[in-house]
Records
---
Amino acid sequence: MSEPHDRSVVLSGVEHRFRARDGEVHALDRIDLALEPGEFLTLAGPSGCGKTTLLRLLAGFMEPSSGEITVGGRPVRGPGPERGVVFQQPTLFPWLDVRANVALGPRLRGAGKAERAATADRYLDLVGLHDVGHLRPYELSGGMQQRAQIARVLAADPDIVLMDEPYGALDALTRERLQDELLTLWRETGKTILFITHSVEEAVFLGTRVLVMSPRPGRIVLDEPARFSSDEAQVPPEELRALPAFTETVARVRGAIQHVEPPPRRAG
Ligand SMILES: Nc1ncnc2c1ncn2[C@@H]1O[C@H](COP(=O)(O)OP(=O)(O)O)[C@@H](O)[C@H]1O
Ligand SMILES: [Mg+2]
């Protein structure tokens, strides 16, 4: 972990509007938010509320219409190696096998052969893909490709990991396993994580802070501390999910989302 105190992420008055063919889409409205190093932020909200837009701005794939985003005090002007992005859809290089995809980050930062192999082993193990490292991405199922993408991003060792509904397409068992593995990795490394999810339980289970965004234009309408993932008590996950404190937090987050969910549109 490098200079953890130089890695605060700060959004000040961040607004975003898209120019669309039929007018303007006001996606984000004055977002003020600070991510402290080592925080695990989870972000939920109705679809179309601007979650992915927020992530793309943090990643530096585009600039906000107004406001500013800084990382470690420096304005974000584009992507950077300290920020890793896990997309909703798996993104892998089809001409490299899975193992070489995972080892790409270490290779790009000039790691030697032994270190590249050790890193690839570690992250292939983490996502349960050790046996398929020799295959090409297109030979894997969608869920396995997604796990490979996660391994590739984590192996590059970014201080800040931005994840856009990374587990949305995975079966329940794989999802729970990867949740636990991500928490272990986070506790060990102190990375800052922003994790977007549709699942309120997942948001509460993983996050040290749970954010809820309103429908367009996206604003943060709930910023709720959660401690379940940082608790060193090591309550087994299935027991944890049954704790009254857990179910109450879930209810509060769900209430915030439902409260802001627009009423169903009438026909005609
Ligand atoms: N490139 C784009 N051009 C125009 N509108 C966009 C573009 N990307 C996203 N939007 C719109 O911005 C809003 C927020 O989208 P998005 O951030 O993807 O929401 P979420 O991830 O919460 O589902 C939506 O109304 C979406 O249609
Ligand atoms: Mg999205």
---
Amino acid sequence: MITMKTLEELYVAIEHLNMEGGWHRRQPSLWPEPKANFLSAHWRYAEVKPILEAAGHLVDHHLAERRNLTLTNPLQGNWYSTVRTLVAAYQSIKPGENALSHRHTPNALRIILEGHGTYTVVNGMRVEMRPGDVLLTPSWHWHSHEAIGPDECFWVDVLDVPLVHLLEPMFFEHHPERCEPVKENVASSPLAFRWENSVHRLDAQTESPANGTAEREIELGSPAMKTIAVHVQRMSAGFDSTLHKTTANAVFTVLSGSGTSRIGDHEFKWSKGDVLAVPSWQPYQHHVMEDAHLVRVSDEPVMRAFDFLYGR
Ligand SMILES: [Fe+2]
């Protein structure tokens, strides 16, 4: 027997059962194109490095397993992510320090900015990290870092932790021996993309990406990891990339050179070591002032896997 005689009574009954009528949503669930929720953002290495150096005096590796500074997108309510699916962080390690071994389901990579004599051990393979190198730590691989040379080493980490937060399969554990034993010292590894190899491949590159987003571009891996793609770009002084937007979320790290980038409604002046957040569907364009190399880290593999990768 129907006892509800008014729309109001109907809606009360629907809400009482934790339901919502698709014809009168409080908020739309579908819209014509992406909303570009996350904000464009820029971090200057010149401002970050002194803070990392100060942290090196105040925060030792007993207090912080990793001495890192995550780059939090200024989107209101966001507490962690750099863009929707990725988090970037600056990290440093001082001579004599050892960042203990752990593993987690999120995929991670390191882009080395400065410093020699630092090594990473990934699943027992010990390899040096040098400026310009990109080193991978795929999901559930043990990893630790140690600095045995004279330099403090600085790098940028990018991880897919926000994607793992969304999907929920987070697992993390410390190595039972604190430092994972080294099985083998290696000069090269499929998980280490050397700067000299990137330079060699860029030198041999003759064509620009069809969408005009860089002058030359190579991909490290195909893709580097299941959720993260890494591209190294080279652009000469005076080069202007085309204005482009894509559903893929990206974090750019400046390895060399300088320039300006318009991302969304903001313009950022960048130089070596800086990081730029280019969230999904924010239009962006680079203008290069001094010959530059940028590393573009994106969630393209995720977007592509689900047929969500669009650009214009
Ligand atoms: Fe880690």
